[in-house]
Amino acid sequence: MLANLGRAVKIEDLRARILFTLAMLLVFRLGVHVPTPGVIAERVAPLFATGSIFQLLDLFAGGALATVSVFAMSITPYINSSIIVQLLTVVIPRLEELAKEGEEGRRKLTQLTRYGTVVMALLQAGGIAFYLNRAGALEWPGLPGMAVVAITLTAGTVLLMWVGEQITEKGIGNGISLLIFAGIVSRLPHGLVTLAEMWRAGSVNLFQILLLVVLGLVVIVAVVWVTEGQRRIPVQYAKRVVGRRIYGGQSTHIPIRVNQAGVIPVIFAASLVGLPLTVAGFFPRAGWAQFLARWFDWGTPLNTAVYFWLIVGFTFFYTAITFNPQDIADNLRKYGGYIPGLRPGRPTAEYLARVVTRITVFGALFLALISVLPLLVRGVTNIASIYFGGTALLIVVGVALETMKQIEAHLLMRQYQGFMKR
After folding, report:
1. Which domain holds residue 28?
2. Quick check: is 121 in a domain?
3. Are 41 and 32 in contact (CB under 8 A)?
4. Which helix (H) or strand (E) holds 157?
5. Which residues does 383 contact at the CB level (< 8 Å), separation at least 6?
6. Tens digit of each residue's pLDDT (9 = 90 or more) over 276-326
7. Transmembrane segments in this chain: where (predicted)?
8. Do 280 and 295 meet the contact criterion of CB atoms below 8 Å apart?
């Protein structure tokens, strides 16, 4: 991996792409430190007490939510908009047709996702502004102050969406994923400093720190294993004679990943599980709000159980959307391919559905277990001030692997181009 990265830096085109990506990530990190006008940040700090759902959301935002900067909402509205558009693609026939129209259809769906991002950002920013107004955290109370906060936060999210798309187009890797990656990695120095201060103060001992490091290494190995794990279904293509040429006859495989859904179910489940607390925060004196805050507080058994099973359910749901066994079976039959021992068509689709279901069971349980890992780690190490997130490790490792694969693909393509020129 390091050798490929060194080779990429030596190639002018790839070096320009890498430098452009780093420049865009620098813009993101600079924006994290730009405060939102009219917000008294000191009055927002209590929301980010240890173990709250806001600490998880602030981790994705790279610390921007705790300081209520212009990038406080990060890219979350864009992710939610993308999920909603993908769900609507299954329900609305017109959107399903666009998804099958190739590049032009995908461009229209991307534009629809952008509009959805603006709407989602306005709704989320309006809720944040309303909450800050009720908490007395606005310098200009009332509608004018809330409007300034809502517009600023929405503009910040739209700017991040543009930055992510520029990285995807002109840089290396998926821009949206790299923004989340940069936000999570940027919190690492702060966590190390906090851990060092706790050690000097005597709050934790060396054994607890070593236990935390060992658990982190075990989780990283497990994440890499599951992220790279796949079931390969063998496929054989029959020979076809077209004119004087013979096509087909080769063997290949269909790779079915263990974690087919990625981290999308985790992000979506975190948004839903935090909804009761958000609603309760608007009405702190109401009896039902106190009931929700008591039973659905982050880390309570009920909250953890709901979060766990929401992730499992969304993993199955998202996998069913992104992987359609019937379409794959139809494409195999169309191009003369078949799975050895199975008839083309319906038997092939049923077999693929069974395989995907069995694999998704393991992937969904692993994803849910990794997501509730911070609660388990705090119970084992008794270190409550450090957010040890399996979700964060899952994102960091997955994005790093995917980015390096793209660099390797660029290097391989240039090798083939050089061979053809000779």
Report:
1. 1-196
2. yes
3. no
4. helix 143-170
5. 195, 198, 204, 208, 212, 377
6. 776 776 676 777 777 777 777 777 788 888 888 988 988 898 888 788 888
7. 14-32, 44-65, 112-132, 144-163, 175-193, 205-226, 263-284, 304-324, 355-377, 383-404
8. no
